[in-house]
Amino acid sequence: MNSETKPNRRVLIVDDNQSIHDDYTRVLCPLRNAGDLDALEAAIFGGGPTTAVVTEGYELTHCLQGADAYQKVCEAFDHDEPFAVAFVDLRMPPGWDGVETIEKLWSRDPNIQVVICSAQSDYKLSDIVSRLGRSDQLLFLRKPFDPDEVQQLARALSQKWDLAQQHVKQLQSANEGLERELEAKCAVEVRLRHDATHDSLTTLPNRTLLLERLHHCVERLRRQPDQSCALLFLDLDNFKLINDSLGHDTGDKVLVEVSNRLLAAVRTCDTLARGVSALASRLGGDEFVVLLEDVGDAATAIRVAQRLREVVHAPMQIGERCVVVGASVGISVWSPGKSADILLREADTAMYQAKYSGKDRFALFDQNMHAAVLQRLTVEADLRRAIERQEFFVEYQPIVCLESGRIAGFEALLRWNHPTKGRVAPDNFIPVAEESGQIQKIGLWVIGQVARDLRQWREQEPAAEKIYVSVNVSRLQILDEQFSDNLFDMLTSHGVDATSVHVEVTENAVMGATATIVRTLDRLRQLGCKILMDDFGTGHSSLSCLHRFPIDVLKIDRAFADTLGSSRDYAAVVQAIVTLAHNLNVRVVAEGVETPQHMVQLQALDCDFAQGYHFSKPIPAALALSLISDGPRWTQRAA
Fold first, then answer.
1. Are residues 601 and 468 in the same domain?
2. E runs forming strands in 90-167
3. How many domains does the chain contain in total?
4. Are 223 and 345 in contact (CB under 8 A)?
5. In terms of DSSP H, where are the helices of 505-620?
6. DSSP tag of 243
7. Computed from CA positions of residues 231, 356, 425, 452, in that sequence, does the dihedral angle turn out positive or negative?
8. Are residues 235 and 140 located together in one domain of the fold?
9. How many CB atoms within 10 Å of residue 196?
10. Are 34 and 53 in contact (CB under 8 A)?
11. pLDDT digits (tens, 9 = 90+) for 382-404
């Protein structure tokens, strides 16, 4: 309807008598001259002249038949100019009578206020109302009618039409407001449902939605056991290093990029295995799970896992940095009797097995894995209590100067005396400590213990003043920008100078070094610590790393000492390493010296220091102090 607030004074007159139309015109659209109007009214209606003339501004439309009136109503309604009131004669031969006309008018515009006008008495108002089915917009006026009565009806009914339309508009406005509120509420509910089942960072489905889909899938497979499904559990390798070295903002961008890659990859799973559908989800942190439905066999799941691992491993550009991450993938394939929870647990177990086997690879679950992973998790839990229970201790293995034959220092070696398992081999707990992130806390404890032992040695033996101790540091520790300051504070609190402690890092720990690692190594040297590269020759680096990193001492892996006597070629390799290191002002320590012959051969190759069971096995701090006090010399020389 027209939104203007102007009152509607459009009136429809329906009567087969033209003179009646003239009467309505004179009553509702009076002449401006009041005297003329008085005379006219007296002549038509009888009685004395009226004393007041009221002009309402009615707009009259005249029709002699009901069909014509119906057409006018349709046109007015279509043009958004509806009639407010219709005066309808009851008898209009030969066409529609008044009742049928009203039915037609209301069928097109149900809002018209109607006045039935008739001089006949054979129609009862109750019968008319019964036929029309409504009375709220219907009045009855008998002819001859009084002009004042016509004016009052026209005025009252047109105002009623106005009020009704205002009320309709108010209701429409209120309804529109309610609809907007409902739409907003529905949008919020949709968003809340989405947020409840999707990860806020990556927008991938979360654990809730994954488990819902997985439960439905397993229930379907119970009814159709000839089919199967598989879960691929992905965990990003060393993701904590990215967060610690590049910041959590970069870490979040990496997670988003990995999510996008997984999402794109699972959409093309059908190209790797026909008929397979996939759902990629994020469980939290750096853990993702892909559900493969309608998988034929384990080989299909392995192909998809290999593809996903390759997709994740591809270099990604994060801002100005090129970041490369690996993924360890655990695979579990459904078989009759497995629940959704068991399937997820098996995939998680296989992922840990892949990670423990060297990372950036996949593993298919088998029953033997469960015991192995459970054992590893037990070790991890026991490690968390080991410091508080004082289960750790440090042993020291001497490092001997090959020129003087005297002890130059010691390497500190962490040991664990488990309350029920006894001594645990370092290879069985150090990797777990690194993987779980506990190595930082344990490493700081080792530094503190070394500082206490050094101080005690020097308090009891003057010769210990010249002795240094080297401590092993993991990649996770040197990626911590606070590590150098923490080490310095720990040494200072025990009254030990930083020059007395050397830091050993493996070449694998510094290969692909970030700026954080280089800064940490430089900072340690500034504090007075010497940097030793341990296990040189076991990784993928070359001698060029001696140019790239602030290295003071190179420790040659024990494998070289073992092979010195078996071939002149091995001796030549050691000779080349020693010569190049010396040219770069780097000293060399040979590990794994087990026999006097090893020592003599290394002396001949001009190696600086040696370490191994030929001199001493790792010993407690008290025995190390006795060894310092005794001042032994190993003087074997080639003849």
1. yes
2. 113-118, 138-142
3. 3
4. no
5. 507-510, 515-527, 545-548, 558-562, 568-583, 596-604
6. H
7. negative
8. no
9. 10
10. yes
11. 999 998 899 999 999 999 999 99
Asked if 229 and 293 touch (Cβ cutoff 8 Å), the reply is yes
The set of residues, in sequence order, having a beta carbon less than 8 Å from that of 100 and lying 6+ positions away, is 66
Identity (one letter) of the amino acid at 258?
A: V
Q: Tell me how far apart the alpha carbons of residues 260 and 280 are, in angstroms, rounded to a whole number.
A: 10
pLDDT higher than 80, residue 450: yes
Q: Using CA atoms, how far apart are residues 330 and 343, in angstroms rounded to an integer?
A: 11
Residue 81 near residue 50, CB atoms below 8 Å: no
Contact 351, 331 (CB under 8 A): no
Bridge partner residues of 609 (DSSP): 401, 589
Clarify whether residues 121 and 244 are in a common domain. no
> What's residue 208's pLDDT?
92
Alpha helices in 461-563 (DSSP H): 475-478, 483-493, 507-510, 515-527, 545-548, 558-562
Instruction: Residue 16: give the domain boundaries.
Output: 10-170
Q: What's the DSSP call for residue 543?
A: T
**In-domain check, residue 247:** yes
CA 613 to chain centre: 53
Phi, psi dihedrals of residue 327, rounded to the nearest 5°: -140, 130
Higher pLDDT, 410 or 247: 410
pLDDT level of residue 567 (50, 70, 90 thresholds): low
Asked, for residue 329, whether it belongs to a domain, the answer is yes
Q: Sign of the CA dihedral 184, 187, 192, 195?
A: negative
What is the bridge-based pairing of β-strands 138-142 and 85-89? unpaired
pLDDT at 38 over 60: no
Given a contact cutoff of 8 angstroms between Cβ atoms, the answer to whether 533 and 512 are in contact is no
Type of residue at 302: I
Check which CATH number belongs to the domain holding 146 and give it.
Answer: 3.40.50.2300
CB 479 within 8 A of CB 514: yes
Going by C-beta distance under 8 Å and a sequence separation of 6 or more, which residues neighbour residue 129?
135, 138
